[in-house]
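Pasting as-is:
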Amino acid sequence: MDLLKRLIMANGVSGDENEVRALIHKEIKAHVDHVEVDKMGNLICHRKGSKPTVLLAAHMDEVGLIVKGITSEGLLFCAEVGGLIPLTLIGEKVLVRAKKGQVHGWLTTRKTSASTEHEELPTMKDIFIDTGLDAKELEAFGVSVGSYVSFDKHSALDIYGKKIAGKALDNRIGCYILIQLARALKKSGRDVFFVFTVQEEIGLYGAWTSMYTLQPDWGIAVDTCVATDLLDEPNKISLGKGPVLTVMDDRLIASRDLNEHLSSLAAKNGINFQLDITDRGTTDASVISLQKGGVPSTVLSVPVRNMHMASGIAHQRDIENAIKLLSLLLENPPASSCRL
């Protein structure tokens, strides 16, 4: 888990993925044949091998904040970068990225009541960052409108039993899985693109640009999804019961051929997996599937509790099984798709 810890410690709010990209490049470059960074900032890694070509995509960015205003007292008001729940932000420690380093601060609110039962829930207009510095001191550090803000979790990754907790599990888990697959892939193996995308959290923008020059036969977004095992839902997505294959989400109907092939591989090799249909959100796969006449695509996700909050919770077994299943796919890909 050391690699995952280092990925989580890196800060990479959407549009500010440089630190994450540099770490991934360092870890993967010896295991692929070609690496490039496109104009958008996507990291595209190619391992040459036999056809068909499989594309695996994982987004590098995490949800966070960006400074939109600074008061004379030095209070920082922010906009969301990605989907956040304002109420869950209050009391969290953050890092404000500045030109001369980083400034620590705490998210607080001007709503003084400890109870929200009889009042409206706070919005981003009610929440600000207090760094203990005034406006002139912040300016001296290089904090300004446009400075990125990430959650500050000094322990980075907590391991308890088989579960892990940490910031940015969405989607450093996916990045971790792709790096581990690249390390394990045989030299004479599959033709694979490992694509680490930017700005997924704000509109899948990296996926759009990364696909212009690529022509894979199959596409898989490796991501995280919401664990619902604590909710009263008929089809619960649970921690520890395996990675999740998407059947349909808000913008994608997954390739039936690819899902059936993955399901068969899992069943033959004793790998637990789960199926999910959701109308909440989508992934890079929805973009990959629409490129150049269509790319049969799906999503393989690791369930996470507390998605898009300061700390998420995941199960190591789900990560391990995702790696096993994708390794089997690269060794035994589907032969073709959509044939009469």
